[in-house]
Protein: Lipoprotein
Amino acid sequence: MRHPLIAACAGAMLLLVSGCGARDNSAEARRAIEDVNVIDETNLNDIMLTVADPTEAVNYFKRASAAAPDRLDLQRGLAASLVRAKAITEATGAWQSVAAHPQATPSDKVQYADALIRAGRWNEAEAQLNAIPPTYETFERYKLEAMVADSNKRWAKADSFYEIAASLTTQPAGVMNNWGYSKLSRGDFDAAERLFAEAIGHDRDLFTAKNNLVLARGAQRKYDLPVVPMSQTEQAQLMHTLALAAIKQGDVAIGKGLLRSAVDTHPQHFEAAARSLAALEANVAR
Structure:
C-alpha cells in the first residue's frame, strides 16, 4: 500500500504536469517532475528505513543501489536495512564500503563500529571509534565507546562514557540499563540496582531493566519485588527470576515459595516456573 505522503507527492506531480502543459512550457514541467520525484524518493527511503518490513527494505535498497551505484545515501540505506534485518555479516561489509567512501562522515564510521560490535569484532570496532575525531560527540558514539571499554574491563572509562552518553539523549533508559548491567557484572549490586531503577523511571515498559533490577536485588538477598510498574504477567516472570536467584545462592525454601507464587500469579499456565518447581520438588524428594 502506498504511504499517504507518497500519494500526496504523486498527486502534486500530476497537478504540476497539467499546469505546465497548459502553458506549453516543457522545460519547467521537467524541472517540476524532477523536484517532486526527489521528494517522493526521499520520503520512500525514510519509510523503508523506519516502518517497512526489514526484508522488504533490504530488497528495495539493493535494487536502488544497483540502479545508482554512485549514490552514497542508497548504500547507507542498504547497510542500515541489513542491520535491521539482522543480516549482520552482510551489514558489516556494507558499512565498511560506506565508511571507506571519500564522502563518508563520522556518523558512517560510528555505524560501521556498531555493525562490528554486533558481529563480535570488538578490536576492529575500537579501531574505528579511535579513528573518529574527538570533536564528534554524539550519543551513539559514546554508547559504543562505553560498550568497548566494558568489553576491555576498563571500568573507569566505561563509567565516564556511559555518563556522557546518558547526558546526550532524551531517552537514556537503554544506556542506563546497559550501564547497570555493567555494574552488575562487576559485582557492584547497589549501583546496578540504582541504575536499573533510573532506567525504568525513564521507560516504564522496559522489561529487561525490570528483570535486571530483580537480579541485582536477588544478588543482595533482597527477595521482595521492587516497587515498579508491572503487569500481572511481568510480576509472575519477575518472581520466577527472583526464585532462580535465591536458589542459586542456596536459599532453596525461599526460591520454592517464589516459584509457587509465580505459578499462582501468572494469568495463564506458566510453563517455565511450573517446570522449575517440579524439578526442585523432585530433587528434594530424592
About this structure: Residues 1-51 form one domain. The chain has a mean pLDDT of 87. The radius of gyration is 26 Å.
